[in-house]
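Q: I have 382 residues here and want to know how they pack in 3D. Can you give me a structure?
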Amino acid sequence: KKLVERGHCIDWILQSEKPCKSAHKTQWSGCNVWVGGNNQSKHLVTKLKKHFRGLLNDLRMFSIIKNNHYDFVQVKDKFISALLAIVACRVFQTRFVFWLSYPFPEDAFLKSKEKRFPYSFFYLLRGHAFQFILYKIILPSSMHVFVQSEQMKLDIIRHNIPASKMTSVPMGVEINKIPYSSQDGKNKNNYEARNILYLGILNRVRHMDFLVRSFAIVQKKFPEAKLYLVGWSFDPEDIKALKHEAEEQGVSNSVIFTGFLPIEKAWEYVRQSDVCVSPFYPTPILNSTSPTKLIEYMAMGKPVVANDHPEQKQVISKSKAGICVPYDELKFAEAIMTILANRPLAKEMGDNGREYVTNHRTYNIIADLVESQYQKLLESAP
């Protein structure tokens, strides 16, 4: 959206998120969009059919690139389609750029080792295939690579991809669309409920039972405290496991599961919170992410508690918007209690966070980064 506003033309090849019987062409922000059909079902055959229809739609790139002049063809996270795009770019003499938002090969290897995922041998094969395709073909063939974080950049360097070939583009926010008031929580007295909030996915891979146990420690000092888990999981069993953990810890009456909410309603829960938390289980998979929730908390002027995930540690260190601790239940609880017990400190941290996001993490600033990198590629190309 920001790049189009600056006069750049971006055409899209996408697959419909919702069920769609047939492929079609439409317009989005004045740009062409070729939309592929989709059929949604959990059956394996239907899933394979969905991916096949997506691949057929992506094959349109050959005729589209042939009939239009593009300075770049950018593929995001699609490995097989990226191979096709590399061929198309060479045939029609344009530049190929790849955008990687998640460590897919490493994720497949991790799932192959976890008993709760069926078809472990399939995930192992997938991991090896993705690893070879990504690090031996796609990235070496790319003119440039956009990655999610500085940590992901460091991880990819280990696969002999030069740092000069990569640009990290962290998550940001549309600052003017996020509700913010410097008065939130200002009139609370020391006897009112303390609201602790987590916003995000509750999948088991994130080990959110860590947060429930930390909250149990907090509630011993602040019995009136409430923990709001604003989010959902693709697997209902993950929510059941968290509710069971809350019962085991004796805090089930103070842990509120909101389920999936539209973002506007989710932000209202953030607005009512006293401290927002962002625990990230320390694995190579999650260490390379760029947490959106942390930036959203800060944009709303909320003090944060996070563990020393690479990007979170860097952001909190620079912004002074909260407390960053090791991944330890007691230390995490102590950090929450420090903020709950000191409202002036909480207000100062919230103000710091809002200022940092305004100066470093708005979509306009991120668009500057992406636009300038593409401009450099244009100027350097023969």
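Q: Anything worth noting?
A: The two ends are 29 Å apart (CA to CA). The first strand starts at residue 12 and ends at 15.
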